[in-house]
Design goal:
Chain lengths: ~450, ~625
């Protein structure tokens, strides 16, 4: 694989102070020589690695910007290839122009994630680090960012490696005992193994729980507000948006008629899914139809069901209650400022266990709602400031498969199977965990990862 | 001067366990074969332990038998005692081991060789390989005689430049004082084959009449004899068995060894060859396990017509006087007379990564090799390779594709794949832990796994093949029947369950569900199964295992599926690893040297990391797209 030279803007496309254009590949130095004129006359190709050089960047004769050029030569660079970074003044237009000049000089635009991919391919980083970098690029909120940084340190990799070590140690012992029964005895071994496996499964279970949180951390909690017309959905939405908690982004969603509003409540990101139509007509069920509602509900992590307590429940309410069965639902008994005719007990009977009484109009009961959201998604006890989360679906699957295999080992121990049977499932668990650290490689895995790398945003 | 010249299809160099299987296979596949031995009296010699089989080695013997080899039949004829090892463990690690009458084993094999059509056995030392344009032409012997052949199989065992050592005494002889082969190594080197030096060792043989057996515990054979060969039944081979004896080393033994360790040629550096970690000498064991205050010592008969007894577990290369002292410190051996000294033996062999998985040399067409010459240890490992080399040399002359067993098919597949892929730095011994898919590679189903392949090769006759098909059908039908058979909670049933210590039925269950209960099996449930057809015990066993361990078998099968995916990704023979930019240098070197045939094989090379494999996969993907 003759690797060509790639380039991309490495900083966010905003009008911020400094913008970086990164170039990686064996032509990086040739390219920078063509477009960069250092202030002090020197040959940029011959400078020492890890040095900075002040000068100007040109597109042919046209000076584009003043800049500082960083040279990092392979193999001691992120990708193990020669890397050059051009630090120029920020500003979308300037950065684009500099990138164009770099491309004219022989580079090609990098695919999303391609620097990381090269780092991985060149053996520079293990998979869990590579994926953490990808997550970092994709991360949209501060907690996800923090968790990505921790994984990058290889903290996840370290823990998983340690678990794998414990597993392989047990396998090795069983195998030694089978081949050399004179010197290694497995008598009583399964008791110790049972304790060990239970410890490991506990840790993996914790990871798995965090994986659900992890997904939420990365993407925000998908939240859908439902309720019959005039129940007060838009008032609730407005109260949520109107809080002094920062509105992070306004992103047009994937479907043309939905709008996602990202907000944070006590640091928990919520993506509140709304439709363009709802706010006009406030007629969720009728306007976009039951199908659309179902589609949104499938994706929802959280449903806020707004009930107008000033009037009796209608057929529409019954229909909604049917639709939200099995979801995480907080029923908001709205219009607490008026006399209530809806019985809380009736809703509880229908399976709605989380009920908060509010008045959107009077801005009452919102604190209780936030507290409820906290409880629901973090069991009220998970603190995510200094923990490691699994933020990647592939990792989650691997952990979940490993857990299944270890449970089979426990079952074998319980059934008093001979020790040689344990190895089958122990090895499966070992392999699965290896997929996280990149120590096991199946071709499926490689395909999957590069599919993700190339998808980008 | 006129020299003898003869033409054969295939030449086999050496008539040990590998050479015999190789020669028999090629002769039986219809090729004119000549097999050379340094002495007509050393055919199928067992110069070390007096037994065949044992943990994982027993599997190899049954696989050899299923493919149409001779070892299983020969040991069935000449065993003194038979035992199924590891019976308290799962069926995957049950292993058959038989004590052999060494002399009879050798005589019986000599007879088989002599009576096989197309096969000539010839005493003589092969000194030169004849190679032209990278193709084998034949061999030359010490007398100058030339034997032309289309394929040559090297199975020289421990004879190449052999040297036997104990203490400061060393002799340039092969095992048991037999003549070493001192010339062939140079010829091999001149043809570009790189050689290495390994060592192994054997304990003393002692005089039975000087042993005090009252201080030892007697080790009996099994009452129920399982033959090695699938063609034999218990009643065909049943005999009065001869016991082995168990005793232990003492603190004094360990002290004697410690005090004299400096006189061991292994520790003084007089031996340069690398020895097997898994078949350690008593001095190795004492150094490696300092906490063990005693080690097992098995006293095993060498044959029915000799007083020699083998001191299993105490191989050594210490000087004669130390050997005497240490054996005398073992209970029961206080007054023992040594008949033959323990000794270590050094010999030339190859790094088998020079071979293809078919056991043909990558650089010399038509040259094959097997056995200890390939860096393995053990009679069974040797025989397995010899058989495959014989089959594949013949297949080559037939213009057919080589038969390569993979790791999910047979221990033989694991053995050969390890040898040709991993650079082993010590004599390679088969172990159950080396087989990833052990539960599928049981000794009890070797026939079901491999008889068809033996038939396809032409080493299994039609009758045996048809019996196999019938067995398969019976197993399949019976599994289906018991899976569908509903057992009601009748009085009979409850009584039987109670008597077997199993909980009684609350509602009806299938027979298969009952079989799966840990405390039950297929056989004990016969009294409540009126419709059960009369089936051979081997068939019953398969039905039982397949039902009882169904879940594990299924999971292992899905591991195999994963494994096969990587094996199926072939790497083109002409790949230039220098062109694969992102590979690490070490990986490039290893891959260029071993030239794996699949991604799966590549992933097993030490020094090739998972990241390298990903790079390789991507490179192949790109090559594929470019085309």
């Amino acid at each position: 694989m003759k690797s060509d030279t790639i380039a991309a803007i490495a900083t966010p496309m905003t009008n911020s102070g400094i913008g970086i254009i990164r170039i990686s590949g064996n032509q990086s130095l040739d390219i920078i020589e063509k477009i960069f004129k250092p202030k002090r006359k020197k040959n940029i190709k011959e400078v020492a690695t890890y040095t900075a050089h002040y000068g100007h960047v040109y597109d042919h004769d046209k000076m584009l910007d003043e800049c500082v050029v960083l040279v990092m030569k392979g193999p001691h660079s992120y990708t193990t290839e020669d890397i050059v970074e051009i630090n120029c003044h920020g500003g979308i237009i300037v950065m684009k122009k500099v990138l164009e000049a770099v491309i004219k000089a022989g580079a090609r635009p990098a695919e999303p994630g391609e620097f990381t991919k090269r780092a991985f391919l060149n053996g520079r980083i293990d998979l869990s680090k590579a994926e953490a970098v990808m997550d970092l690029i994709h991360s949209r909120n501060e907690f996800a960012l923090d968790s990505s940084l921790k994984q990058l340190d290889g903290a996840l990799g370290e823990i998983i490696k340690n678990l794998r070590k414990q597993i392989i140690h047990s396998v090795a012992f069983i195998e030694s005992a089978l081949d050399d029964p004179e010197h290694y005895s497995v008598d009583g071994f399964s008791d110790g193994l049972e304790i060990q496996i239970k410890d490991i499964t506990k840790e993996l279970k914790y990871f798995l729980d965090s994986a659900d949180n992890g997904r939420i951390l990365k993407e925000g909690i998908q939240t859908v507000i439902v309720g019959k017309p005039n129940a007060g959905k838009s008032s609730v939405l407005n109260v949520l948006l109107g809080e002094e908690r920062a509105i992070v982004t306004d992103i047009a969603g994937t479907t043309r008629d939905t709008l996602e509003e990202s907000i944070q409540i006590n640091g928990i990101p919520l993506n509140i899914i709304d439709t363009a139509g709802i706010r006009k007509t406030e007629d969720f069920v009728e306007k976009i139809g039951v199908d659309k509602a179902k589609e949104l509900l499938v994706k929802a992590d959280l449903v806020l069901y707004v009930v107008d307590t000033s009037i009796p429940l209608t057929e529409e309410d019954e229909e909604i209650i049917q639709l939200i069965q099995g979801k995480q639902v907080i029923a908001l008994l709205n219009k607490a400022d008026l006399e209530s005719v809806v019985k809380e007990d009736y809703l509880k009977e229908k399976g709605l266990e989380h009920i908060v009484i509010i008045s959107a109009k009077e801005n009452q009961g919102m604190e209780e709602l936030y507290e409820k959201i906290n409880q629901l998604f973090f069991h009220g006890k998970v603190s995510f400031n200094d923990e490691i989360y699994i933020t990647n679906i592939r990792h989650k699957n691997a952990v979940s498969n490993a857990l299944d295999s270890l449970n089979l080992v426990l079952k074998s121990i319980e059934n008093q199977m001979p020790e040689d049977f344990f190895s089958i499932d122990l090895m499966d668990a070992y392999e699965q965990l290896g997929y996280i650290t990149g120590e096991s490689v199946g071709e499926d895995l490689v395909n999957e990862i590069f599919a993700e790398f190339c998808m980008g945003k | 001067m006129k020299k003898l010249e003869e033409k054969y299809d295939i030449v086999v160099v050496g008539a040990g366990h590998a050479g015999c299987e190789a020669a028999l296979a090629s002769a039986r596949m219809g090729f004119q074969t000549i097999c050379f031995t340094v002495s007509m009296d050393s055919i199928a010699l067992m110069p070390c332990n007096p037994n065949i089989g044992g943990s994982s080695k027993g599997h190899l013997v049954r696989e050899i038998d299923a493919l149409g080899g001779e070892m299983g039949k020969n040991i069935d004829k000449t065993y003194l005692q038979s035992k199924m090892l590891n019976k308290s463990k799962g069926p995957a690690v049950h292993s058959l081991r038989a004590q052999a009458d060494k002399k009879m084993y050798s005589i019986s094999m000599t007879q088989i060789m002599g009576n096989t059509p197309n096969l000539t056995v010839r005493q003589g030392e092969v000194t030169d390989l004849l190679v032209e344009d990278g193709k084998i032409q034949g061999v030359k012997t010490y007398s100058g005689a030339v034997y032309y052949a289309k394929a040559v199989i090297l199975t020289t065992g421990t004879y190449l430049k052999a040297r036997c050592i104990y203490g400061n005494v060393s002799n340039y002889t092969g095992p048991n004082g037999l003549q070493a082969a001192n010339y062939l190594t140079d010829s091999l080197k001149s043809h570009g084959i790189s050689m290495r030096r390994f060592k192994t060792g054997t304990p003393a043989r002692i005089d039975k009449n000087t042993i005090d057996f009252s201080k030892m515990s007697e080790q009996f054979g099994d009452e129920k004899i399982v033959p090695f060969s699938f063609t034999n039944r218990e009643e065909d081979i049943k005999r009065d068995q001869i016991s082995c004896w168990l005793t232990y080393t003492t603190e004094e033994t360990h002290k004697i060894i410690h005090d004299n360790i400096h006189r061991s040629p292994l520790f003084s550096g007089a031996i340069e060859g690398t020895g097997p970690r898994y078949c350690p000498s008593i001095e190795d064991k004492i150094v490696k396990f300092p906490d063990k205050d005693r080690h097992q010592v098995f006293i095993e008969p060498e044959g029915e017509y000799t007083n020699e007894m083998y001191v299993g577990g105490m191989s050594s290369s210490l000087p004669e006087d130390v050997q005497y002292a240490m054996y005398h410190s073992v209970p029961g051996l206080e007054n023992v007379k040594i008949v033959r000294n323990a000794y270590a033996i050094e010999y030339d062999c190859i790094d088998a990564t020079q071979l293809k998985p078919s056991l043909e040399f990558k650089e010399i067409e038509g040259l094959f090799s097997g056995g200890q010459f390939n860096g393995s240890s053990g009679y069974e490992e040797a025989a397995a390779q010899g058989l495959m080399a014989g089959i594949n040399a013949s297949r080559k002359l037939q213009g057919k594709e080589a038969i390569v067993l993979d790791r999910s098919q047979a221990y033989i597949g694991v053995l050969i794949d390890d040898l040709v892929t991993k650079e082993t730095s010590e004599p390679y011994r088969m172990m159950t832990s080396r087989a990833e898919y052990r539960l599928l590679l049981r000794q009890d189903n070797a026939d079901l796994r491999l008889t068809k392949i033996g038939y396809e090769a032409g080493l299994i006759d039609k009758e045996r093949y048809e019996n196999l098909l019938l067995k398969e059908k019976q197993i399949e039908e019976e599994i289906k029947r018991v899976e569908e058979l509903i057992v009601g909670a009748s009085k009979n049933v409850q009584n039987l369950l109670e008597s077997l210590g199993s909980s009684t039925l609350k509602s009806a269950a299938t027979m298969a569900e009952l079989i799966r209960r840990p405390e039950l099996n297929y056989m004990v449930l016969a009294p409540i199964d009126d419709e059960r057809p009369k089936l051979d015990i081997q068939v019953q066993e398969q039905v039982n295992i397949n039902i009882k361990y169904e879940g594990y078998i299924k999971r292992q099968l899905s591991q195999v599926k994963q494994f096969k995916k990587m094996e199926k990704r072939r790497i083109p023979e002409n790949i230039d690893y220098e062109d694969v930019g992102s590979l690490r240098i070490e990986a490039k070197q290893k891959l260029s040297k071993i030239r794996p045939s699949s991604i799966g094989q590549a992933s097993r090379i030490s020094g090739v990391s998972p990241a390298d494999i990903s790079v390789l996969l991507i490179y192949l993907e790109q090559m594929h797209h470019r085309r």
